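User: I'm new to structure prediction. If I give you an amino acid sequence, what do you actually give back? Let's try with this one:
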Amino acid sequence: VFAGAADQSIGAGSANTDAIILAHAQGAPETSYAAGLARDYNGGGYTDWFLPSRYEMIEMFSKKAVINTNATANGGSNFANNSYWNSTEETTNNANRQGFDNGAQGSQSKSVGLFVRAVRAF
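Assistant: Good question. You get back a string of structure tokens that encode the predicted 3D arrangement of the chain. For your 122 residues, that looks like this:
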């Protein structure tokens, strides 16, 4: 399914997430794909979580040490040295990913299981 969630910019993650969910489930989040999993998360009692866009994820990688420190101090978890989905689609079959081990970015088949890191604001 191609949702047209192609916006890479900072501030686009929530709208991309909404577009993906609408295309997949006609509005109801499902947890079988990254955007639905992020939107369904309710950490801290909040329900406004979303899957970050490509440039939001790049910014998160650049601030990885600060985010990890704050997450640990607040009962959260550090980034794994692995690749994470972001909400920017490339094609019907591929979306963007961000490596949190070496910073590598790229297009990845949507059928591959990668990590998900939801955010509430950017």
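You can read the tokens as a compact description of the fold. Here is one thing that stands out. The CA atoms of residues 41 and 49 lie 6 Å apart.
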